[in-house]
Structure prediction request, 170 residues.
Amino acid sequence: MNANTVTLHGKPFTLEGVLPEVGQKAPRFEAVAQDLSVVSSDNYSGKVIVYASVPSLDTPVCDIEGKKFNQEATKLGENVEIVIVSMDLPFAQKRWCGSAGVKRLTTLSDHRWASFGKAYGVLITDLRLLARAVFVVDTENIIRHVQLVEEVSHEPDYEKVLEAVQECIK
Prediction:
């Protein structure tokens, strides 16, 4: 398995773009918020950011991941922003947040341009979905943690993500 490939239920899929590396400047992207406004990564400058890309919030593993990150976000303080990016339409993301009781994280839709997926190397081209990955970006916009989940149906390693966040807020 290489950095440009993931599996979904054991079937390999190629990713478009290049996965950024720790120490690199975080790539810029634009996506769509729940209110249909265009949001860019510039909106989060000066904060520690956790970008979690998921295939769809309407799947069991993504639902678990979103709720887990929402729960953890309440403990991390106002200088940490957790952003879940998926190809789900903004309407579906808003519905999911409401039904899941999610209030402490942001969802962004990459459906229009796949800007995040291409910039972060997580676009599953054949499915036009995002691979499951987590990126921690510090207040200087430098990537401090990269985690591409090789089997998309598995959850990320939350402990490693939270450790990287703690390092950034020290």
Notes: The first strand starts at residue 5 and ends at 8. The domain at 13-169 is CATH 3.40.30.10 (Glutaredoxin). The mean pLDDT is 95.
